[in-house]
Amino acid sequence: MINTVVPRPFAVVGTVSTTGVRNLAPFSCFNAVTTTPFTVMIGPAERADGTDKDTLSNCRPPEDGGTGCFTINAATEENADAVFATAADLPPEIDEFHHAGLDPAASEVIPAPRLAGSAWCLECETALVIDRLPERVAHLWDGPFTGSLVYGLVRRIHLRDDVLNEQGRPDPNKLAAVGRMGGQEWVR
Questions:
Q1: Alpha carbon 187 to chain centroid distance?
Q2: Where are the strands (E) in the chain, listed by range?
Q3: Inter-residue contact 179 to 187 (CB < 8 Å)
Q4: Is 147 exposed, middle or buried (0-12, 13-18, 19+ CB in 10 A)?
Q5: What pTM did the predictor assign?
Q6: pLDDT tens-digit profile of 98-137?
């Protein structure tokens, strides 16, 4: 799959735990899925032992033990090396912003942190977490379900002025976004 669905957009997702520990993780399984309301999706995986990785745990709604929110931040040529460093498998009590040498910024409407200086950022509230296939289609897949789907409603969009064109819209050349190809291959 990862060698056929290419290039995939790439971003870094910011979350915060219920105890206030910041998390930052790279995602090439994310995308916008609807425009009204503006909804995005990320696909966090489980740990090898079947437990939630920090991003998934933090994205879960409060009634399920999380904070119910996340940010999606631009991965660009400018910050790519640091963003890739957030892929490290660290214990939940470690702040990935600090580990990667990246600065957090406060979000405006949610508690999850943004990536300071990011070309763009989406502040999202978790709308739905899907951990397994619905029963009506479960027979189509009999293997392990090692990832979840997290849908988020976008509550605030941040854009740096220097990435906008004359019409006030993001300019693809100024964004200098990076994408994921198969394996360890990347593309602008």
A1: 18
A2: 8-9, 11-16, 22-27, 30-35, 38-42, 69-74, 104-105, 114-115, 120-130, 149-159, 179-180, 186-187
A3: yes
A4: middle
A5: 0.91
A6: 999 999 999 999 999 999 999 999 999 999 999 877 777 7
